[in-house]
Amino acid sequence: MNIDNTTNDLITNIKVTNGFNEVHIDTLKGKTTKELFLDFKSNNTKADGAFEISFKRNLKRESQKFDYYSNGIPSVESYEIVIKNDTVIVR
Asked: Quick one: which of 46, 60, 62, 88 could link to 72 by a disulfide (CB 3.0–4.6 Å)?
């Protein structure tokens, strides 16, 4: 996954989760991108679920669920998460 902060804001306390694993990024400066890896190998449940990103911007917590996985397997191999001033876009 790539997280792209297209704003001028400092984004903090970033967490991306699939419900059984999570990845944290402390800070993401404005106009920067970070790559991260969310492990599915430790998932033995074969369950269905969704991804979620949460973060703080200007002291306000924001979160958004996106895409899904079925039988413990994600539907795509890679995601680009774009943080904009008023929304989060996932491709």
From this structure: 46
DSSP bridge partners of 35: 2
Which tokens hold the place of 27? 């800070």
Look at the pTM and tell me if it is higher than 0.85: yes
End-to-end Cα distance, the chain: 10
Residue 8: count other Cβ atoms within 10 Å of its Cβ.
9
Strands 32-35 and 2-5: antiparallel
Q: 28 is written with which tokens?
A: 């993401």
What's the pLDDT at 24?
97
- Collect the ranges in the chain with pLDDT lower than 50: none
Amino acid at the residue 83:
I
Query: Rg (Cα) of the chain, in Å, rounded?
Result: 13
Which of 29, 76, 18 has the alpha carbon at shortest distance from 57?
A: 29
* Angstrom distance (rounded) from CA 57 to CA 59: 5
